[in-house]
Amino acid sequence: MRPEAGEILDRSADQLLGQLAPRLGESFAQGTAALLALLMKFSAREYERGAEIRARENAELRMLFARFSPALSDTDLARRLDALARTTEDSLAISALDAANKVLRRALIELHARVEEQGDLEAERAIWHVLRAMADRRAVALF
Amino acid sequence: MSDTLSGRLAAYLAGTLGAPDLSVHDLGRIPGGASRETYRFRARYTAEGRTVERKLILRRDPPASLIETERSTEFRAYQAFYRLGLPVPEPIALEQGVGVLERPFFIMAEVENAQAGSILAPDPYGPHREKVGRQFWNILGRIAHADPHAVGLGDIDGPTSPAHCWKHEVERWERVIDEDEDEPQPIARAAIRWLKRNPPPPAQKIAVVHGDYRSGNFLHDSDGVILAVLDWEMAHLGDPLEDLAWALDPLWAHHDPSRPAGTLPREDAISLWEEASGMKADRAALRWWEVFASLKGCAIWISAAREYATGRNDDPVNAFSGWYCLAFHNKVLADRLGAGP
């Protein structure tokens, strides 16, 4: 058994906050140390969930594109979305998932704007459903 | 660095205040946000044969500023509302050149024995919550009530007419997102489109908008008396509902969203603002400005994330803002706009 990165970050944050920060004289230094500890806590949780969040988000966006690209009047956009819907993850490294996510998000913005123009309420509802799920999953708990 | 800074600061103030023997003591950095470096110090000098000691605050631009703001506007806003009798620190000096302290800065009086309520604290004002709240919403109403021309701020950045307030602000923050966005922001972009499709009615008047009036940006004493409203760096002219909506934003009250800014119930807060401002807060218009407030938040946090990611400003406040605050406002916007047509 060995400590995982998330556990190391989490416990180091506790030590920084509880043992080291109070020994720093200046209020600026104490405040900075406390904030660094909080960021380490966030990072510990992200270590556990980061790949899952991104992979799931990418999958949901591809499903949206597959579902709604056929009804688009903009054939160029429809073709690009259809191609994106068929992509898969090359790697589960965070950087690779993020790179794919950027491409998919950019396409989502185009799709969303277009279905608003077309007045396609079903597609709007489906997109907002995914956007809300994305926001929920990426929300960061303070404590 | 502090010693060097002390010496240069002393030389500058000696000239500015006409006190050749002025010396600077106990210069130390204090928390003050990522958009300005904040230092506390004491200036000691002789005036009319007596030794004077003043406790002062230095606010200096960081190497890279989070939001490009007009510091002369900020300083003039302090001057205007100090003269008007609102609780703001006395402004002392403004230096826009880079020759004195490498970056522009201004100096103001320190507000002693005061504390700021953290937005992370579950109950930032403790037993004084109601008392602080009554003052907080009243002061915001008084800022809205002030005549920009009468207080000397009629020429600061703002819209051309009451009907253009909303557009001026949406375009301003859309530009910030365009310039600073690293990863595409589908929720913020959807919010921008919604704001443009559903414009609010014209502003009741063009007022001075503080721009960042919220919990954490004012100081109060141990009896719950508000001593100073701070951080006027985003002050501009606009619709006074913009400030009200920003102060009502759930980010400043995430432990209890029913009490905006950690103070009073929402409707009580709005009533106090209406009483002090002499205006009615049209609820439909206010909803628009609340959506805008969260979009503006996204823009600020996107900038913060970029500052940190590019290494231009490694203040951890930027990392926190670009992570926690951006995720928070994305969720607020998704919940507000995505609840269904």
Calculate the terminal CA-CA distance of chain A, rounded to whole Å: 27 Å
Strand order of the largest sheet of chain B: 1-2-3-5-4
Sequence stretches where pLDDT stays below 50 over 5 or more residues of chain A: none
Output mean pLDDT of chain A: 95
Global shape of chain A: elongated
Helix share of residues of chain A?
over 70%
Strand residue percentage of chain A: under 5%
The main pleated sheet of chain A reads as: none
Instruction: Specify the number of helices of chain A.
Output: 5
Q: How many separate helices of chain B?
A: 9
Portion in helices of chain B: 40-55%
Q: Could you spell the SSE succession of chain B in H and E letters?
A: HEEEHEEEHHHEEEEHHHH
Largest interface: A-B, 34 and 31 residues
Shape designation of chain B: globular
| Strand segment count of chain B | 10
By DSSP, the count of extended strands of chain A is 0
Radius of gyration of chain A: 21 Å
Strand fraction band of chain B? Answer: 15-25%
Care to describe what's here?
The complex is a heterodimer of chains A (143) and B (341). Chain A has 143 residues and is mainly alpha-helical. Chain A contains 5 helices and no strands. Chain A has helices at residues 5-20, 27-68, 75-85, 94-118, 121-138. Chain B is an alpha+beta fold. Chain B has helices at 2-17, 71-83, 129-145, 165-180, 186-197, 240-248, 266-277, 283-309, 316-337, and strands at 23-30, 37-47, 50-60, 91-95, 105-109, 115-116, 207-209, 218-220, 226-229, 236-238. The longest helix of chain B has 27 residues, at 283-309. Chain B starts with a helix and ends with a helix. The mean pLDDT of chain B is 93. Chain A binds chain B through residues 26-28, 31-32, 35-36, 38-39, 42, 98, 101-102, 105-106, 108-109, 112-113, 116, 121, 124-125, 128-129, 131-132, 134-136, 138-140, 142, and chain B through 28-31, 120, 183-187, 189-190, 193, 254, 316-317, 319-320, 323-324, 327-328, 330-331, 333-335, 337-338, 340-341.
